[in-house]
Amino acid sequence: MRYGGNTTCVEVRIGDDIIVLDAGTGLRLLGQSLLAEFKGRPLNLTLLISHTHWDHIQGLPFFAPIYDARCRLRILGGEGARKGLVAALTGQMESTYFPVPFSKLPSNIEIEELRDFNFAVGNTLVRAQRANHPGFCVGYRLFSPDGLICFFPDTEPRPGGDDCEMIEFIRDADVLILDSQYSHAEYHRHTGWGHGCVEDSVALALRANVKKLVLFHHDPSHDDRFMDDLVRHARALVKKQRGKLRVEAAREGLAIQLGSKQAGK
Ligand SMILES: [Zn+2]
Ligand SMILES: [Zn+2]
Predict the structure, then answer these.
(1) Minimum-distance ligand to the CA of 219?
(2) How far apart are the C-alpha atoms of 140 and 8, rounded to whole Å?
(3) Ligand with an atom nearest the CA of residue 194
(4) 69 CA distance to ligand 2 centroid (A)?
(5) Residue 176's beta-bridge partner residues?
(6) How far apart are CA 246 and CA 238, in angstroms?
(7) d(CA 22, CA 152)
């Protein structure tokens, strides 16, 4: 109840640019808050999709701004299998699943397959990198003037434990949002499922000199108390290594401010 049960959706504000990371069920609440904030002013948004598993796309049909003719939405991501991103996103709005077809949406939506892993959103340079997750899945690195943000919602440590590419990609991140679904004991029953554990996340973040680690992709069977314990455990691991890494678990509505006005809430 405190951490929240919606699936992946993170909003990043850089200057006037609004970048949304993934379209899980959390996108519904974001749509409502954007409409309330912009009160009739047109919205111009970019949505970066890590991959098309359900928990990362199911919020899209419930995202109120797409029913507003003045909204412009650019969607970038990869599907990587047979169908392509357009079919993966719009297929969930076919009549078997949803009453309003994608083709009837009044807003201006562009869907682009991710081909170049280096691109720009407004003034922000973005880089993508493949994650270790079944199917096609990427993480993103956003270079904002106030800091470096890395987002890997679904990924598992690569076998061997020495993932130099990953360490280079996330090195010196101010904020790393990282799949830490399991405890160590649980992870051993789920290896190969494409998700990580808290112990490995902390070790990776420490090695890459990350400033703040946000534990992400909570297991649906973990309640608030379990999550509190995971956070405590992660912080104890950092302390043991005499690290400076700050750790918290993602929760509904959590906001992190980078730059001069750094705050934790
Ligand atoms: Zn997934
Ligand atoms: Zn997922």
Answers:
(1) 2
(2) 14
(3) 1
(4) 30
(5) 150, 213
(6) 8
(7) 11
SS3 70: coil
Q: Which residues 6+ apart lie within 8 Å of 103 measured at CB?
A: 90
H-run or E-run covering 82 = none
CA–CA separation, 151 vs 10, rounded Å?
9
The C-alpha R_g of the chain, in whole angstroms, comes to 18
Q: State whether residue 169 is helix, strand or coil.
A: helix
Ligand 2 centroid – CA 131 distance (Å):
12
Structure tokens of 127?
């880089």
CA of 105 to the centre of ligand 1 (A): 27
Tell me how many degrees the CA angle 106-113-133 measures, rounded to the nearest 5. Answer: 115
Q: Report which bound ligand comes closest to the CA of 134.
A: 1
| 153-205 pLDDT tens trace | 999 998 876 789 999 999 999 999 999 999 999 999 999 999 999 999 999 99
Q: Measured on CA atoms in the order 229, 234, 237, 241, is the torsion positive or negative? A: negative
Across 57-174, the runs of DSSP E, i.e. the strands, are 72-77, 108-113, 118-121, 124-130, 138-144, 147-152
**CA angle centred on 174, ends 169 and 178, rounded to 5°:** 60
DSSP category for residue 157: P
Give the Cα-Cα-Cα angle 264, 219, 195 (nearest 5 degrees).
95
Cα gap 2→130, rounded to integer Å: 31
Is the pLDDT at 76 greater than 50, yes or no?
yes
CA angle 34, 37, 38 (to 5 degrees): 85
Would you give the DSSP letter of residue 42? P
Q: Does the model's pTM come out above 0.70? A: yes
Q: Are 129 and 241 in contact (CB under 8 A)?
A: no
Backbone angles phi, psi at 255, to 5 degrees: -120, 135
